[in-house]
Amino acid sequence: MLPVERHRRIVAELSQSKFVTTDDLTALLGVSHETVRRDLAQLERRGELTRVHGGATSPEAPVGEEAPFSERSGAMAEEKRAIGQVAATFIEPGQTVIIDVGTTALEVARALPADHAGVIATPSLLVAAEVSTRPRVEVLVSGGRLRAGDLACSNAHAVEFFSNLRADAVFVGSGGIAPYGLTDFHLDEVATKRAMLTNASHRYVLADSSKFGRTAAHRVCELSGFDTLLTDQNCPQELHTAISRNGGTIVVA
Question: Cα–Cα distance between 36 and 49 in angstroms, integer?
Answer without folding.
Answer: 13
